[in-house]
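Quick review question:
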């Protein structure tokens, strides 16, 4: 099995989404010995934002420069790594009600007609199904339930929608929210997130042991 580990926070070791994604990957490694992990750090090694020249290349055009050709190759490699993965773990902090631009740039390189989805007379059809997506989601405020901020959640809603477009329905969020609302709420949020990561791991161990 192959796992693609993607981080996008600009905060380095202080990032909660990075800490959670690392814990998720560790749990998956423990549950599936021999798991191959590919690491992608979009803050340290960002993928360039999509341009009209990239779209022209997808439509059969020719690279206008060596720089564009190199950048397109990086995007193609990112798409190949995504398609090859059985599990994708994504560290996705909320920035200004959405996702980091680095993460959006990566997703734009995945959303390629004929590779991850296609259009039909009945609407779009996903071509990249069969994967598991686990998102380590961190948010300063509370955006779930009856929160007044719920309508401003353009982070998790967007990620679920885009991966559903690709045909991926197994999308799970490990969430730590309310991180900026006080020390005690932050502690509780982190404890709950780590407990959620450990819970499925224990269940998988039991299933593997009985098989």
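Suggested answer, residue by residue:
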């Amino acid at each position: 099995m192959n796992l693609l580990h993607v981080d996008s926070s600009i905060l380095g070791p202080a990032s909660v989404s990075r800490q959670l994604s690392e814990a998720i990957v560790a749990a998956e490694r423990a549950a599936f010995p021999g798991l191959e992990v590919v690491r992608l750090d979009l803050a340290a090694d960002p993928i360039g934002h999509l341009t009209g020249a990239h779209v022209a290349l997808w439509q059969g055009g020719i690279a206008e420069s060596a720089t564009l050709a190199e950048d397109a190759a990086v995007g193609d490699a990112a798409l190949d790594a995504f398609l090859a993965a059985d599990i994708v773990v994504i560290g996705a902090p909320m920035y200004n009600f959405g996702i980091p631009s680095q993460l959006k740039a990566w997703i734009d390189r995945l959303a390629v007609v004929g590779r991850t989805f296609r259009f039909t007379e009945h609407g779009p059809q996903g071509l990249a199904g069969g994967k598991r997506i686990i998102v380590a989601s961190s948010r300063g405020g509370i955006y779930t339930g009856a929160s007044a901020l719920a309508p401003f959640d353009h982070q998790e809603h967007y990620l679920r929608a885009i991966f559903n477009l690709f045909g991926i329905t197994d999308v799970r969020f490990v969430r730590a929210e309310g991180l900026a609302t006080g020390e005690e709420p932050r502690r509780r949020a982190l404890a709950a997130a780590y407990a959620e990561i450990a819970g499925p791991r224990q269940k998988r161990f039991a299933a593997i042991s009985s098989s």
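Why it works: The CA atoms of residues 63 and 70 lie 9 Å apart. Helices lie at 16-31, 52-58, 66-84, 101-110, 156-165, 183-210.
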